[in-house]
Task: structure prediction
Amino acid sequence: MFLSEVSLNYKTQPPWEFLLSASSNSLQSYELSRLNHAANLRKEITQLLDSWLEENTSALLARLLMRQREHPVAQGAAANGDRSGKTVSDNFFTDQPAASPAIRDRK
Result:
């Protein structure tokens, strides 16, 4: 059962008439069944979060590769040993304009 199925079948109100008239054994059984259900939901949520993180990581990796392909000059210069005052972050932030030296020197 997936969360979408659970949300369709989920009752928002506990069965009050049953709970108020139930024996101690029935209440214990009900409590255990609810705790078991909650544990199962937690496992499913954890699996969904893991899948979500994997998918987002894959998408971010693809985005990084696309950006690096858009700016192959920075990669080629670094591979040839031509640093020309660039830092590693220049490879990742090449689409952002550099601040002019006059702005950096003002304090």
In short: The chain has a mean pLDDT of 78. The chain has six helices and no strands. Helices lie at 3-9, 16-21, 24-70, 72-79, 88-92, 101-105.
